[in-house]
Every structure is written in structure tokens, then in C-alpha cells.
User: Fold this.
Amino acid sequence: MKFYNLLIKYRFWLGLALIVLGVVAQYTVDIWTAVICYTVAFIALLSHFIIGPLRLVQKPMEEGNIEEVQKIIDSIWFPGLLIKPIRSSYYTLKGNMDMARQDFTSAEANLKKSASLSSSLNDTEGATRLQLGMMALQRSDFKEGEKLVKAAIRSGLPDKESEAMAYLAMVQIYLNRRENKAAKMYFSKAKALKPKTEQVVKQIKEMDKYIGRMPG
Assistant:
């Protein structure tokens, strides 16, 4: 695994080195050795540009090494060349990094790019739409927020915590409309998931006191 990660990290430079070796081999050894060097160089360079190094972000993400994650993201010079599912993940990751820096304008732009690239191979589609929906709600754009959160629920969310957040967002939307019955229904769904995240648990506890006193 370590060797494979090193190969991903340096395959661009390996590809360039193999082109040089191919040229040298063509004039000093034989054409077939040169062809082998050119072929491996082509594979290395092609995979660098259409697959990219996103696989390398897992370890620094787990370690909380945000600088290393940013360095890996910045090493992708031409994101438009990435294949569609990886390009979508790239923009999702960029959006999350923007949100960590509280650059919400850039975050929203990148997450929208990710959502527009969604496909059956992209298991982050629901989470991306949920993030966009939450950002719309922060701007008090309840119409757009509702559309995006409902789309996130339909797409499927990766865990119970995200699903609970989506249902709580729907509670907020329906409370704003004073549609108490619908708000209570979504609140029941959020509670039934029994989320563990401190922020979500706290929000449910605070909302429980208010929901219980509501008519309807």
C-alpha cells in the first residue's frame, strides 16, 4: 500500500523520466526498449491527469493534517480532465475545505459543481446536496433549502447522523411555514435515528422542548 501511494504521488515525474529514458533507449539500445518506456510513461501520465491523487487524502484527513490535504488538492492542475466521479469528489473536497476556512461563497460554488456532476457512481451526492441545502437555509432561502434537502434525502445519505440533520432541516423549514404537523413528523424521524453526534443530539434536545408544546 505504501509503495502504491508513492507511485501515485510521483507518477507524473516518473512518466516524464520514462519519456527521457525512452528517447535515450531509442538511440542507444533498441526501438522496443524505447516503446516499453513510452508506453509506461503514457499510462503514468494519463492516470495522473484522469484519476489524480485524491486517494492520498485519506491518511492526512484521518490525522487532521489539513495542510497536507490542501497540498494534494492543489497538485491537481487540470480538474476538468478528471473522470466524472473523481471530479465530483474533488469539488466536494474543495467545498469542504472552503467551509473549514469559512469561505462560504467559494464553498457553495464548488459544492454546486460537485452536485452537477453527480452520477450513480458518486456516493457523495446526497451529502453534497445536504450541505448546499443547509447553506441555503443559513441565507434564509427556505425555498431553495427545501428543494436541496429533499433531493439529498431522495439521493440517500451516508450515515444516520447526516440523515438526522436532513430531517431537522426539514423541521426548521416547516416550522418557518407554521406547518406544525409536518414539522412534528420530520422531528419524529430525526429522533428515531438516535444520532450520537453531540451537535445533533443537542439540537434534538432543544427542539424537543419546543415541539412538545406546539399545537397540531
